[in-house]
Amino acid sequence: MASQGTSCRRSPNPVRVDLLGTIDYLTAWDVQRANAEARRAGTGPDVLMLLEHPSVYTAGKRTRPEDRPTDGTPVIDVDRGGRITWHGPGQLVGYPIVSLGEPLDVVDYVRRLEEALIAVCHGLGVSTAGRVEGRSGVWLPADDLRPERKIAAIGVRVQGGVTLHGFALNCDPDLGEFGRIVPCGITDAGVTSLSAELGREIPTDEVLASVTEAVLAALEGTLPVREHVVPRRETAVAAGVAGLDLQLHPSLH
């Protein structure tokens, strides 16, 4: 699995990076859509939005009723692929609003985002970060005490050749917020963070520069997509068969 060393973007012009701080989810969604509309119309550039959200649950198109909170916690339904997830303080969220080149390859785009976040994790010392077959995002392998666990989530939409939504890297969030839902609809795995894995606080500011650099490099192809297979225990695989979600959302085909 290696990218061709070429850009996945239609435009040769630089990506504009917008550092938005903490911003309400619905406000950021409006900004996303405005950036995407400008990009489709040719009046705006490719943009990488980097930010944090106040605590919020969002549900993609494939979210099932049993994935949702059972305590009445509000959920915002959105038009991305995937299921339900949480966003909040301590989590770095990235929304690349990019016009993809032809032929359109959304799976390749997702793999590039994964590659960028894997590179960031490896650079910080989380050397086991990689991919689990059939599941998007960045994962760590099970060990004697913990199941497979996701450290970064990805959910995207492509409309008119322009990407929307993106990724969320767990830096130092309150992982208890994931306890109200079935994160990404996966019942046989856990959620973790850079802070939990490294045993020290990793604020979002600490990874902002490295995430920016890695995402831009992955989009351009200077950071090639490689194999980073998370080894799976036979017992874990057997126990989790019923919970596996092996089909990509149609937007990723």
Automatic annotation (TrEMBL):
The protein's matches in Gene3D superfamilies, at most eight in alphabetical order, are given as: Bira Bifunctional Protein, Domain 2
Indicate the family of this protein: Belongs to the LipB family.
Q: Where in the cell is it found?
A: Cytoplasm
Keyword Heme carried by entry: no
Q: What is this protein called?
A: Octanoyltransferase
Top-rank taxon, per record: Bacteria
**Described function:** Catalyzes the transfer of endogenously produced octanoic acid from octanoyl-acyl-carrier-protein onto the lipoyl domains of lipoate-dependent enzymes. Lipoyl-ACP can also act as a substrate although octanoyl-ACP is likely to be the physiological substrate.
Keyword Iron carried by entry: no
Keywords of this entry: Acyltransferase, Cytoplasm, Transferase
Q: What is this enzyme's catalytic activity, as reactions?
A: octanoyl-[ACP] + L-lysyl-[protein] = N(6)-octanoyl-L-lysyl-[protein] + holo-[ACP] + H(+)
Catalytic residue positions: C184
Q: What more does the entry say? A: In the reaction, the free carboxyl group of octanoic acid is attached via an amide linkage to the epsilon-amino group of a specific lysine residue of lipoyl domains of lipoate-dependent enzymes.
Identify one Pfam family in the record: LplA-B_cat
Q: Which gene encodes it?
A: lipB
